[in-house]
Design brief:
single chain; alpha+beta; L,D-transpeptidase catalytic domain-like; 2 domains; 9-stranded mixed beta sheet; two-stranded antiparallel sheet; about 20% helix; globular
């Protein structure tokens, strides 16, 4: 989610077409059928890729933000799905993978959503300052726009939401918005989590080593590497506050003292915290879902907020988390 020090609500209450994403219709996505991928050059979301990403997300093989582009996180999801389905190694969306996802048969990937009274009444933050000391002064680190709120709720990139809804007022009660039909299977109890540092993946295993889910993840950095070996889950927290302590973890800017940052989806650990048995380390959400797997973390395992919120339903204290180099 983007950071802004100044944000005009009138500018974000209406979805707009980004220069990075041209208009796209719901019918194009819902009717998409198999065709070979053409590469990375297009600035327009590919209807078939939107559909494939949505179907992977439904199966629990998260592509991160659904954006309609053939990127690394999409290919991570494809590779795990192919392995689970016995379609061979590789990360390419070939015709066999498309068929296994039910691509041609599924006709309701983009659906209508009506903006509710609760949506319209949401108190958007005027902006999220980058400095933690300034964030600590706020009552809540909430969404800064209806576009951000709805994109996260439906697992979408903000540009894709804009492309599907040119000129639509997203913060007006009763507005009809085209969104992803974001639905996932009932969470099953995890028996183990594997954090694959090299691939940037968190894989959830159930009974008999069956893969239950996979998520693209930002896992540590050279400056603040993640642990090695095995840890365990110690506790979980939904809608957590964030306790900043530069003596225990890292120093942000010139902030040398402890700070408590308020809860909210734009909190540094997002909307979910899964604490691990090494102090200050955990698995958590993120205020910037489009950057998952593309930037470094401060040693933790960072997921999109919606992936972390689904994962927390699958874990309990004592669960083993393996860190794989």
């Amino acid at each position: 989610m983007a950071r802004f020090t100044v944000f005009l609500l009138t500018a974000v209450s209406v979805a707009f077409l980004s220069t990075a994403a041209q208009a796209l219709s719901a019918d194009e996505v819902n009717a998409a059928s198999w065709s070979p991928l053409e590469g990375f050059a297009s600035k327009r979301p590919d209807p078939m890729i939107v559909k494939a990403q949505a179907l992977l997300d439904r199966r629990g093989f998260s592509p991160g933000v659904v954006d309609g582009f053939d990127g690394d996180n999409f290919r991570k999801a494809v590779s795990i799905f192919r392995k689970v389905e016995g379609l061979g190694e590789g990360d390419a969306l070939d015709e066999a993978t498309w068929r296994a996802l039910g691509g041609d048969a599924e006709a309701e990937v983009i659906v209508n959503y009506t903006v509710s009274a609760e949506d319209a009444a949401y108190e958007f933050a005027p902006g999220i300052p980058p400095d933690y000391a300034e964030q600590a002064k706020l009552k809540r680190l909430g969404y800064v726009s209806a576009q951000e709120m709805l994109a996260e709720r439906f697992h979408m990139d903000t540009d894709l939401l804009a492309a599907l809804n040119p000129g639509v007022a997203l913060d007006v009660k009763g507005a009809n918005v085209k969104v992803l039909a974001a639905q996932r299977p009932k969470p099953q109890q995890a028996m183990r989590l594997d954090a694959d540092k090299r691939r940037g993946l968190l894989i959830v295993y159930g009974a008999n080593d069956a893969v239950l889910a996979s998520f693209p993840a930002t896992i540590g950095s050279e400056r603040t590497p993640t642990p090695t070996g095995e840890l365990t889950v110690t506790r979980v927290a939904r809608n957590p506050t964030y306790h900043y302590d530069p003596e225990k973890n890292f120093q942000q800017g010139s902030n040398k003292g402890r700070l408590t940052l308020p809860a909210g989806p734009n909190n540094p650990v997002g909307s979910t915290w899964i604490a691990l048995s090494k102090p200050t380390f955990g698995i958590h959400g993120s205020p910037e879902p489009s950057k998952i797997g593309k930037t470094a973390s401060h040693g933790c395992v960072r997921l999109t907020n919606w992936d972390a919120a689904w994962l927390v339903q699958m874990v309990k204290p004592g669960l083993i988390v393996r860190f794989i180099d």
